[in-house]
Design a protein that fits this description.
Number of strands: 14
Strand order of the largest sheet: 8-7-6-9-11-10
Low-confidence stretches: none
CATH topology of the largest domain: Nucleotidyltransferase, domain 5
CATH class of the largest domain: Alpha Beta
Distance between the termini: 34 Å
Oligomer: single chain
Length: 498
């Protein structure tokens, strides 16, 4: 049955200060925003000294996600993308919270890297300024991190995720809310030190315009405009006036600034300190706030996936080139793995595009570890996939790929799947069994096609049947499959063949 075309998409941004949701309809290849929701959850404030989320804050966040989930309840999985940022990256033992969060929201949550967050922010900003091909500096001050991106047109030249944000800096330098000149100066100096590591690279390349996105920068521009301090974005002079107003007020509760939203006040001092350091260290004269941000970037990235312009595909090809993958061998393993998947997908509940996509990627990259060493190359490959920056991939995506590649040969280690969420465990084990069989059948690296075969499965039982007498004529293949049958027991599978 042909799948109905998707005309409505949604992006959810689980930020450190606020959760955002944006829903858009597709009209003539363009996205039209039809709904927005935002709630301040302040999960960054809810991390204790061990980076575990306090129960009250977790409850508040889950209640918010329940409300978002009601809005998204009728939307298919392929039309919604949910991303978590800095605080979810930092959170220890996040698996239990993410499982509850997914249940409340009704959709899978991807915890993305700082580099992936920067890419999506830049994508959101460039689509909001599609007529601007100039080289630009994009800055996004979030609750827990600050992303800096230097790009020209659609191309990113430099990107960095810095461990400072409006919530984190407010908690660290203004813990009781009191704002003094000394505290503001100390917070600004600390932010400047964070920026020193990137300043030379960015200034050397230069830029023609500076653009800011997300809450802190949008709020600051609204305030300096409303106060009459600037008519053209945030200028250095208007930012100094805003900083002085904060120090003069001495506390968020005493701030009397036009256009200041009540839920922004508690974290404004930290955000202004970070922004002031960015102006000083990067020598910015004026910064313009953009309507595009992370969530808009997620929408456009989702649209690209739907139009078969998935950025993950070029990432896979780039990794294959970088690590000198034997493309012919990878292609043979991929084709056989997908043929096996087709035979067992209904019984093993591996239908749909997602399992085929993951299995295809794993097959194409299963030998990247050879670039390091033949000995244990499956483990080397798993490490590369787990710890590299991979555009378009979430941390969960990379963990799943690493589990498949790291267990595609030799004796598998079930512990390699421990970091996967519960709902991905069994599908990943099953895809690993398929990948292992495909790799075994092509161990000779021969270009000659394999004989006709059929794979039958029932729960944890597999039966592989070849043409009559083929195994008798290929004793090495029989020995390979006998060894594989022993090793698959470690994953809980029983293999028979004939």
């Amino acid at each position: 049955m042909k799948r109905a075309a998707i005309d409505t998409v949604a992006a959810v941004d689980l930020g450190s200060n606020s959760f955002h949701m944006v829903v858009a309809q597709l009209h003539h290849e363009e996205l039209r925003i039809i709904d927005r929701l935002r709630e301040r959850t302040a999960i960054a404030e809810g991390l204790d000294e061990s980076d575990r989320l306090k129960s009250k804050v977790a409850e508040r966040a889950l209640e918010c996600l329940g409300r978002f989930g009601q809005r998204l309840s009728h939307m298919p999985a392929d039309s919604v993308r949910v991303v978590g940022t800095n605080t979810l990256r930092r959170m220890r033992d996040s698996r239990a919270f993410l499982a509850k969060a997914r249940q409340a929201l009704g959709h899978r949550i991807e915890v993305i890297s700082g580099r992936e967050e920067a890419r999506l922010i830049y994508l959101g900003v460039t689509h909001a300024h599609s007529d601007d091909s100039r080289r630009k500096l994009v800055v996004d001050i979030g609750g827990g991190s600050t992303e800096c991106i230097l790009g020209e047109g659609p191309e990113i030249l430099e990107s960095d995720s810095l461990q400072m944000g409006c919530v984190r800096w407010s908690m660290q330098y203004f813990p009781d809310g009191e704002i003094t000149k000394e505290r503001m100066q100390k917070a600004q100096i600390a932010a400047g030190l964070e920026l020193q590591g990137i300043a030379r690279r960015y200034r050397r390349l230069g830029w023609e315009s500076a653009i800011g996105s997300s809450g802190t920068i949008v709020a600051c521009e609204e305030m300096v405009r409303a106060a009459g301090w600037s008519i053209r974005g945030i200028t250095d002079k208007s930012l100094r006036k805003l900083r002085k107003a904060l120090v003069d007020a001495g506390h968020p509760s005493r701030l009397q600034l036009p256009a200041l939203q009540a839920d922004r006040a508690p974290v404004l001092a930290g955000g202004v300190a970070v922004l002031s350091a960015i102006f000083k260290i990067l020598d910015i004269d004026v910064l313009h706030a953009s309507p595009g941000a992370l969530r808009e970037g997620v929408l456009h990235d989702l649209l690209g996936r739907m139009k078969h312009e998935d950025v993950r595909e070029p990432t896979i090809r780039s990794f294959a080139r970088r690590y000198h993958v034997d493309l012919e061998q990878a292609g043979r393993v991929e084709r056989t793995a997908l043929a096996l998947l087709t035979q067992v997908a209904p019984t093993w509940e591996l239908e749909g595009s997602a399992p085929a996509r993951v299995l295809s990627w794993a097959a194409r990259l299963h030998e990247i570890g050879l670039a390091i060493s033949y000995s244990g190359y499956h483990r080397h490959g798993a490490y590369l996939l787990a710890h590299s920056d991979m555009s378009g991939f979430s941390r969960e995506d990379q963990t799943q790929l690493a589990a498949l590649v790291g267990n595609h040969r030799r004796r598998p280690d079930r512990a390699g799947f421990d970091d996967l969420p519960a709902d991905l465990l069994e599908p990943s084990l099953r895809m690993t069994a398929i990948l292992r069989l495909a790799a075994r059948l092509h161990r000779s690296r021969s270009p000659r096609p394999l004989p006709k075969f059929d794979l039958f499965v029932r729960r944890s039982e597999l039966r592989l049947e070849f043409e009559r007498d083929w195994l008798d004529a290929h004793p090495l293949s029989r020995a390979e499959l006998q060894e594989e049958a022993e090793q698959l027991l470690s994953l809980g599978f029983e293999l028979r063949f004939a």
